[in-house]
Amino acid sequence: MADAGGYRERGVASWYGKKFHGRRASSGEAYDMYAMTAAHKTLPLPSYVRVRNLQNGRAVIVRVNDRGPFLNNRLIDLSYAAAARLGIIGSGTGVVEVETVGPGETSEPAPAAKPKVEIIPAAAADQGADNPPAGARLYLQVGAFTEWDNAASLRERLERAQLRPIFIQSTLVAAESPNGADAQETDAPPDQARIYRVRIGPLPSVAEGDRLTELAAQHGVAGAKIVVE
């Protein structure tokens, strides 16, 4: 990613500590578990982001100076110090929102500056529905396609493997689709493309998302990721 301006995404944060302390980070500097830093797969090195724990409202600003996380369904890997401030040391992971900040915004934000988002456990959901339940919830995204038939085929294959509840979410996005494919839909505006995202959920926990990720991989689906909506 050449330009991080305007980046904002929700997902799962993890942290790394003593095992990597002192090792060389991707930026060339030594990793310091007590510094406010983080690893991200695509953001420029260095860049600054605000990370907000959506379950308790705590927020920190960290400098991205490393690459990772190396688990597909993790969004950002925090230093020990950053994870401690966000309150995710004990659990190992946290549901967060990550957004870039400008040069003048790199001071620590006030805690709980925004209301926290409750992560709603999986409830009774219509397993045959293609529309996700309302609310801020966790899902496992197992694929994104520009053609309905491809999405439907994956959904049917995973349903047979008992990965449920699974649904297809239809969304209009910018013309260049997330998976690099050309738009095929004629009902979308010229500057937009219709994307069909295949998702499992809602999920009761990150651990369940990890379990389903492994199960999906056993059935030939790589690159599944936990998303928050």
Automatic annotation (TrEMBL):
Family, similarity comment: Belongs to the RlpA family.
Phylogenetic placement of the source organism: Bacteria, Pseudomonadati, Pseudomonadota, Candidatus Muproteobacteria
Boundaries of every SPOR domain copy: 132-229
Entry keyword set: Cell wall biogenesis/degradation, Lyase, Signal
Protein name: Endolytic peptidoglycan transglycosylase RlpA
Gene3D superfamilies: RlpA-like domain, Sporulation related repeat
Domain of life: Bacteria
Function in brief: Lytic transglycosylase with a strong preference for naked glycan strands that lack stem peptides.
UniProt xrefs under InterPro entries: RlpA, RlpA-like_DPBB, RlpA-like_sf, RplA, SPOR-like_dom, SPOR-like_sf
